[in-house]
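Late entry, evening session. Most of the bench is empty. Finally got around to the prediction I had been postponing all week. Sequence below, unchanged from the version circulated by S.P.
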Amino acid sequence: IMDHFFTNTDPADQFPGVADLEALNDRHPDIEMIWWTLAMARLSEPYHVAFNEQLRDYAIANGKILMDIADLESHLPDGTPCTGIDSSENPTDVPAVCDEYVNEVFSGHLNSIGSQRMAKAMWVLFAQLAGWRPDAVN
């Protein structure tokens, strides 16, 4: 996915890449495009982590608005990182969605705690895009 997403320039390809998203953004300069990382699963793969790192780097280098779903899902509110499991349910050191945010063994569909965490993060992002500054004195 990384190679294809970041290097594909074929407009006829059914799977869009960075070039397609940049072209879409160029056609609609009045619309703020929000980029986001891949959601995590308990059975997390190193290539998911690598894709998310590459997307973060791209967003920073190109001044993109980024909703870092992977970072939010793979850390507890106090900043403690979470790691996943392999297909035999053995712990790994690969970042993954925190156990607290899912009810499944391998997947990453958010439960009510994970959904609430993501909803709060989206609210903050949208509010800041609309001009809200949490440190501003009223």
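Two things to note before I forget:
Residues 85 and 92 are 5 Å apart (CA to CA).
The first strand starts at residue 34 and ends at 36.
Will write this up properly tomorrow.
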